[in-house]
Amino acid sequence: MPIPVIAQVKGLATAAGCQLVASCDLAVAATNTHFATPGVNIGLFCSTPAVALGRAVPHKITMEMLFTGKPISAEDAFRYGLINKVVPEDDLEEETMKLAEQICTTSQPVVAMGKKCYYKQITQDRDDAYRIAGQVMVDNLKLQDGNEGIKAFIEKRKPQWTHADDTNK
């Protein structure tokens, strides 16, 4: 999916719910939220949630969550990198929308290109990752919005994005 996916979480995100949060690009959670992969406690290991969780949080945290089923708090989820922000429940929607609105002020094709690059390079060794990222940087400079951003920076003004995906020209 070329656009950023943001999870807004409150309450309890268990098993597939925890997997969904871990699979999103960004996540905002209410302070009273907890995350767990409790399948082990009923004889059903959370194997598919383990895939996303293991890519979102450190190895030992993932293993503890999977082996014990014990929930972690929103604060711990933030510390471990599962979520981006912890906010009071009353502010959850507003804070999530602020994040989305901030992203919406940027060029859509640039964000899409960047997201695709990130996920493509993250599984590669360092040299291949730099090769991929370098090519994306060149491709980014071919976008109208890439040129507009540089021009606006030099002219000390706000860019006027076209949001045109002109990479196939």
Helix coverage percent: 40-55%
Output mean pLDDT: 95
Estimated structural class = mainly alpha
How many strands, what sense, and barrel or not for the largest sheet?
3 strands, parallel
User: Count of DSSP helices?
Assistant: 8
Q: Please state the second-level CATH architecture of the largest domain.
A: Alpha-Beta Complex
Low-confidence stretches: none
SSE ordering: EEHEEHHEHEHHHH
The third-level CATH topology of the largest domain is 2-enoyl-CoA Hydratase, Chain A, domain 1
Mind explaining what this structure looks like?
This protein is mainly α and about 170 residues long. It has 2 domains: about 100 residues, 2-enoyl-CoA Hydratase, Chain A, domain 1; about 50 residues, Lyase 2-enoyl-coa Hydratase, Chain  A, domain 2 (Orthogonal Bundle), CATH 1.10.12.10. About 55% of the residues lie in helices and about 10% in strands. It has 8 helices and 6 strands, in the order E-E-H-E-E-H-H-E-H-E-H-H-H-H. The strands form 2 sheets. The chain has a 3-stranded parallel β-sheet, sandwiched between helices. Strands 2-4-5 form a 3-stranded mixed β-sheet. Helix 1 packs parallel to helix 2, helix 2 packs antiparallel against helix 3 and helix 6 runs antiparallel to helix 7.
Topology summary:
Layout: E1 6-9, E2 12-14, H1 16-23, E3 26-30, E4 34-36, H2 47-56, H3 59-68, E5 72-73, H4 74-80, E6 85-87, H5 92-104, H6 108-121, H7 126-142, H8 144-154
Parallel strand pairs: 1-3, 2-4, 3-6
Antiparallel strand pairs: 4-5
